[in-house]
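Bumping with the actual sequence this time:
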Amino acid sequence: QVQLVESGGGSVQPGGSLRLSCAASGFTSSNTFMGWYRQAPGKEREEVATISSTGEKTNYADSEKGRFTIYRDDTDTVSLEMNSLKPEDKAMYYCNAEGVFYFGDTGGAVRWEQLEVWGQGTLVTVSS
């Protein structure tokens, strides 16, 4: 079973920085877009940043451009560097992976599945 585990959330003052990480596991290999989304209380979940499987393509929401950086630490881990944090950045941040996952067994057979997977979320609080 594919799992995404986020870490790195916490509480910072306005202008501070945090780095979120997301580790994917439960598969042999993958070809996926990964990304970070957030949901503030009373609001809908919104996209923060996404990155292609090779890390060559990234996309950011307008409000995050220049402040946040998404990157792949390795094939199965994606991080989000957040700088100049504002009170309005306070939200639950979720990791997402969408694409093809490959599952190998001890007999050498490999199967694949097209999946979209979400992590449980990590809370970011920005306040003075």
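The tokens above came from a reply further down the thread. The chain has a mean pLDDT of 94.
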